[in-house]
Amino acid sequence: MTVTVDAKRCIACGMCAYAAPEVFRIVGSASAVIAQPEGKNTRVRDAANGCPVNAIRVLEG
């Protein structure tokens, strides 16, 4: 699983950092991926699905 955040779209609401703090952190005015998750991580998928501006991309594989 590879996770990216589009900083131009991100509004730094913090939902992703709350859902998966081991992967996301708010840095300045956007979320940042601090560590790529190993294997399938449902919390990361939930964070991506719940992002209000669809700034999080998750690629399986």
Outline:
The protein is an alpha+beta fold. Helix content is 23%, strand content 26%.
Number of helices: 2
Radius of gyration: 10 Å
C-alpha end-to-end distance: 5 Å
Run of helices and strands? EHEEHE
Q: Whole-number average pLDDT?
A: 95
Beta percentage is: 25-35%
Can you tag this structure with a few keywords?
61 residues; alpha+beta; two-stranded antiparallel sheet; two-stranded antiparallel ribbon; 2 helices; 4 strands; 23% helix; 26% strand; globular
How is this structure best described in words?
With 61 residues, the chain is of the alpha+beta class. Helix content is 23%, strand content 26%. Strands 1-4 form a two-stranded antiparallel sheet.
Topology, pairings included?
Blueprint: E1 2-5, H1 15-19, E2 24-27, E3 30-33, H2 42-50, E4 56-59
Antiparallel strand pairs: 1-4, 2-3
